Amino acid sequence: MTVRSRAAVVHQRGGSFTFEDVEIDNPRPDEVLVRIIACGICHTDIAARDGLLGMEFPAVFGHEGAGVVEIVGTEVAGIRPGDKVVLSFSSCGECSSCAGGHPAHCVAFDELNFGDARIDGTSTIWTAKGEPVGGCFFGQSSLADNALTRERNLIPVDDADDDELALLASLGCGIQAGAGTVLNELRPQPNESLVVFGAGTVGLAAIMAARLAGAAPIVAVDIVSLRLELARELGATFVINGLKEDVGARLREIVGDVDHAVETTGLSRVIDQATRSIGPRGNASLLGISTDEVAISPKSPGPHQRVFYSVAGDSDPQRFIPFLIRCHKEGKFPFDKLIREYPASEINTAVKDSLDGVTIKPVLRF
Ligand SMILES: [Zn+2]
Ligand SMILES: [Zn+2]
Predict the structure, then answer these.
(1) CATH number of this structure's domain 179-311, picked from the four choices 6.10.140.1670, 3.40.718.10, 3.30.470.20, 3.40.50.720
(2) Ligand 2: centre distance to CA 193 (Å)
(3) Which residues is 241 bridged to in the sheet?
(4) Orientation of helix 247-254 relative to helix 268-277, angle to 10°
(5) Which residues 6+ apart lie within 8 Å of 106 measured at CB?
(6) Which residues belong to CATH 3.90.180.10 in the chain?
(7) N or C of the chain: less Cβ packing under 10 Å?
(8) How far is the CA of 91 from the centre of ligand 1 (A)?
(9) What is the mean predicted confidence (pLDDT) over 249-272?
């Protein structure tokens, strides 16, 4: 049995998102079907569309969904039809990383989030003619009216109405990653310096989190003045425009040796800049999707420096997303300032605006 749905299908590498009818499997015993109310667009969706993640086409992407539970499988215990939920990434729930509260480091992370299909290889989405479509993107493929997922992907948000679900959708990936790398991984102490390279969704979330942690100074580096203005509003105490200023010289002037660097662009020259900026005991977290070769010199990182790739900010969505929602309600994490809503039909405009830097975080309303 399948459920007829409308989904944003990408037919070829670099192609546009086209809404068309698809059939989605009814939930297996451990699965849940969610009616999607809103879905954020993240740069990872665009990277997947462009073939950089090795996905098969045609495919349905989308990994920042929020909506209402429609159907639950017979083994699903903690979620019921009608529950309002935010969707996040997939993890197995059984490996030592999952058991230890670090699902972003799940041994099955790649298969569960980038596998095109269920872990047993079966497809979840089909064309009207019955041909398989790549699904299970981040365990959800939520750029669609309905998403088939599992209980572990779902964070209940009890009393949220549709507008709140549209706001909370964006917490599932980029915002969680940026805030998580600061609060879960770098853990700046009050008055330790933190520099963010790239003030998009991930970078701005890192800035808000740095302010929460009491880091100082907080510096944002970008080349788009609009983003730098927003960075200042959200907590950056200094901003540097890389097109107009010598970033290294300015950082030495403002901060000296940087305690914590957050690199979100994935560009090798910026990664180089970020890793060189940190002091002898500094940390650099790399979050950008990179297809560049990155060379690290024999002297860098030094013996007491830490340079690492961050996956989802080492967040456990079940705990971290409710924490971010509480911080937002208390006015300490104003991530709503990043968001612009679009009707789902304007998906390709939303993607373009995101790439052009006109919109930080597009969210589609279904
Ligand atoms: Zn696991
Ligand atoms: Zn993402």
Answers:
(1) 3.40.50.720
(2) 26
(3) 222
(4) 20
(5) 90, 91, 92, 95, 97, 98, 112
(6) 2-172+334-365
(7) N
(8) 5
(9) 94
* Residue where the block lists tokens 């009491």: 214
Given the structure tokens 């390279």, which residue do they identify?
197
Burial (CB count <10 Å: 0-12, 13-18, 19+), residue 336 = exposed
Q: From CA 10, how far away is CA 133, in angstroms rounded?
A: 9
Q: What is the pLDDT of residues 38-52, one digit of tens each?
A: 999 999 999 999 999
- Which of 174, 88, 73, 74 is CA-nearest to residue 137? 88
* Residue 98 CA, ligand 1 centroid: distance in Å: 4
- 71 φ/ψ angles, rounded to the nearest 5 degrees: -135, 135
Q: What is the mean pLDDT of the chain?
A: 95
Distance of CA 194 to the CA centre of its chain: 20
Nearest ligand atom owner, CA of 288: 2
The answer to whether the beta carbons of residues 111 and 34 sit under 8 Å apart is no
Residue with tokens 């944003």: 8
**Quick one: tokens of 114?**
């980038």
pTM of the predicted model, to two decimals?
0.95
Candidates 3.90.180.10, 3.40.190.10, 1.10.10.10, 3.30.1050.10; CATH matching 2-172+334-365:
3.90.180.10
Are 143 and 8 contacting, i.e. CB atoms less than 8 angstroms apart? yes
44 CA → ligand 2 middle, Å: 5
Ligand nearest to the CA of 99: 1
For 70-119, what is each residue's pLDDT tens digit? 999 999 999 999 999 999 999 999 999 999 999 999 999 999 999 999 99
Handedness of CA 250, 251, 252, 253 (dihedral sign): positive
Alpha carbons 258 and 195: distance in angstroms, whole number: 7
Q: How much distance in Å is there from the Cα of 173 to the middle of ligand 2?
A: 4
